[in-house]
Please model this.
Amino acid sequence: MLHILEVERLAVRFGTAALLLAVFTTGGCYAYRPVALAPPPQSRVRVVFTSALVLTTLPSGPDSTRHTYPGVLEANGTIRAAAGDSVALLLEEARTAHGSIDGVAGQVALVATTKIARLEERRFQAGTTALAGLGAAALAATAFILVIVATITKGF
Model:
């Protein structure tokens, strides 16, 4: 026979699964869009360089040890400051042809604008977010209905 507590437990499980699915899909609701001018400070950006370069960085704390990373093709981070000829970027990631460089997160790089091929700003996509949320809700509702139907039919 069908127990109300079993149905409630299943509902909670599927609700939790739908919530987790929604959380995991919202990360995909951001995209990098090209910008003509440097975005304002605190903007999250991806910088694609004209060619592989040696990126020189400084830690963002009191330590003043410079680090150099050869062969960097692009970098992701937050703009600290921008002038007509350079951009100061708080790095999250830097990439070479071989992949991500370990240990660059939190360092600041000063990049000449002449070395920048493309500057892209990370922007929220409301339409994609709405579609992802509706998809997660529809999936959760469908799964819940299937569980209810299966539970009811087993009870007969």
